[in-house]
Amino acid sequence: MSDAGPSGEGGGFGGTGQEADPDGEPPQEGPEYLPCIGDQEEAEKEEEEPSAAKQPRLDDDDEVGFRLHETGLKTISSVGGGQGVVLNTEKVCFTCCTVLSRAEDHGMTAGESEQGEEPWCQNGENKETITPTEEGGDEVEKSGQDDVASQRQYLGLDFSQNPQMLTGSWAEYTHSPENYLKGCKWAPDGSCILSNSADNVLRVYNLPPELYSGSWDLLSEMSPVLRMTEGDTIYDYCWFPKMSSLDPETCFIASSSRDNPVHIWDAFYGDLRASFRPYNHLDELTAAHSLCFSPDGSQLYCGFEKTVRVFYTERPGRDCEERPTVVKKQGQSGIISCLAFSPSQSVYACGSYSRTVGLYSCVDGSLLALLPQRHHGGVTHLLFSHDGYHLYTGGRKDPEILCWDLREPGRVLFSLPRTVSTNQRIYFDLDPSGRYIVSGNTDGMMSVWDTLTAPPDGSEEILQPYLQFQAHRDCTNGISIHPFMPLVASSSGQRQFPWPGDSDDSGSESDEDRVMTSEGNREDNALALWWAGPLGATGEDGRQEGPTALEN
Q1: Among positive and negative, which fits the CA dihedral 243, 244, 245, 247?
Q2: pLDDT of residue 214
Q3: CA-CA distance, 190 to 243, in Å (whole number)?
Q4: Where do runs of H (alpha helix) occur along 413-454?
Q5: How many CB atoms lie within 10 A of CB 296?
Q6: I need a surface site. Which of 30, 328, 343, 487 has the fewest CB within 10 A?
Q7: How many other CB atoms are found less than 10 A from the CB of residue 361?
Q8: How far apart are CA 121 and CA 119, in angstroms?
Q9: Residues 136-158: what's their mean pLDDT?
Q10: Does position 369 have pLDDT exceeding 90, yes or no?
Q11: Residue 264's beta-bridge partner residues?
């Protein structure tokens, strides 16, 4: 285990598993126009090196810019709706995702997108934007709440037709039998995606650079740049919420597995940074069933049976705060299976395998409300709306996602039907605008609901999917929407069982042979990226471009 050093601004780790900058400070933002990374010679040099975002450590005297260039975000441009395609030869600002050189060739000034819109930052936040005034001076505009709300529409999601599959990863999950996936999650800055699978390995994939350049016809199968192996079945995993590839100190992942402490993995180099060790009343090491960082990243909340333990991110070890969910036989019983934080209030929600959902105060962990038992199975995933007024919950072996009105705790606004016929955790996600909810099903379908079509009077009713299509041949268990691009990631697979009566007429076949025979037609273990934006984006040469589906 690596010893934890001083934490960064967001409570990040600075252990021996990663070298800090010479002055011990995180990379500083430039005063106005941030310097871009490298020139043509440096770009040619990088082509000879691995394209992974996570490369071997650099010396202390290396420039921060080279670390940033290793994140694989080589040509980020304004990508609203797939417009504004930029060639690889142009330099870009990695903080604002805008073209800084050769802009005059397109009749633009630095800091402007080709659509004349404000640049969208890589981590989903609008940094300080420089816009020339009529007098030739610079005025700095800082985003407010209205700016953030309007720029969420910049995602450009378009579900008027089926999303098109761009690329994915399939061969990676064929090395071991029944290596089905168990979810995927985009990094908060959108630079990479994390997957979990039955072989107890967390894999990190870089976002293909061809998506930035518009060279969709050159997309090939994705390969992971990092593999982090746990010792047993992985219960839960999550990104540090302040993660940014611009600051390697903030790039880490928390994971929990059976009979193991909570591990903190370096998502830049793949090392184990630190561990949080929870113990039960018998002083035995116990595993957390769910994980979630607080919004500011300073605390890590871990779910156990009838208890939530809170660790401080900057202080690994066994010291923690215990918050029981059952007091004097009153409260939320069962194993706390999922956690989520409200974006607008100091409140967090806990889902339990006892089919209940509770709302708690972040200050002292006191129970604020216990929602009625409406789910047919244990709650496996929950998600707050972006305004904090609604809470979406879904369970295992449960045919619906429920939307709760937190202004009247206990009231269900509407339900979203889906097919969940197993105990597997089936994730769903809400797009940054708060309009679309996307979920998978155990039959391989992907469903999209438009919350704007919900009844305006708030009367509870079933909201039918706005769009539904066959995404995988097997269970679509993971859904994650990119924080600022019209991309949806999905993962598929489930534990397979032999069909009754398979190979009964052949007594020479072993049980294993029968399993493989029955799985041959059903198994689909894959990670897929889907384009959910407008089709027919126009490139610089005037050609109509569009995503090309890859067949696995």
Answers
A1: negative
A2: 74
A3: 10
A4: none
A5: 13
A6: 328
A7: 14
A8: 6
A9: 47
A10: yes
A11: 254, 274
Query: Do 483 and 186 contact (CB within 8 A), yes or no?
Result: yes
**Beta-strand pair 336-341/347-352:** antiparallel
User: Residue 301 in contact with residue 348, Cβ under 8 Å?
Assistant: yes
Q: What is the tens place of the pLDDT at every residue in 57-114? A: 434 333 333 233 333 333 333 333 333 323 233 333 333 333 333 233 333 333 333 3
Tokens 């630095």, located at residue: 110
Q: Distance between CA 167 and CA 209 in Å, rounded?
A: 12
Cβ atoms 527, 181 nearer than 8 A: yes
pLDDT band at 497 (very low <50, low <70, confident <90, very high): confident
Distance CA 164, CA 546 (A): 9
Buried-exposed string 118-141: b where 16+ CB fall within 10 A, e elsewhere:
bbbbbbbbbbebbeeeeeeeeeee
Q: Which two tokens stand for residue 265?
A: 């993995």
Give the H or E element holding residue 150: helix 145-152
CA distance 214 to 211: 5
254 close to 291: Cβ distance less than 8 angstroms: yes
**pTM over the 0.85 mark:** no
Token pair for residue 241?
């919420």
CB 298 within 8 A of CB 11: yes
Q: How many CA within 13 A on the CB side of residue 379? A: 33
Strand ranges (E), 12-137: 92-93, 98-99, 129-132
Q: What is the pLDDT of residues 223-269, one digit of tens each?
A: 999 999 999 999 999 999 999 999 999 999 999 999 999 999 999 99
38-40-41-44 Cα dihedral, nearest 10 degrees: 100
Which tokens sit at 407?
């202004």
Q: Residue 542: helix, strand or coil by DSSP?
A: coil
Helix (H) or strand (E) holding 308: strand 307-312
Q: What is the 3-state secondary structure (H, E, C) of 243-254?
A: CECCEHHHCEEE
Number of H helices, E strands in the chain: 5, 37
- Residue 459 phi/psi, 5-degree rounding, is -70, 135
Contact 124/188 with Cβ under 8 angstroms?
yes
205 has pLDDT over 70: yes
Pick the closest to residue 270 from 104, 55, 85 (CA basis): 55
Is the CB of residue 417 less than 8 Å from the CB of residue 462? yes
Burial (0-12, 13-18, 19+ Cβ within 10 Å), 145: exposed
Is 339 in contact with 294 (CB distance < 8 Å)?
A: no
Instruction: Report the largest interatomic distance among the alpha carbons of the chain, rounded to a whole angstrom.
Output: 88
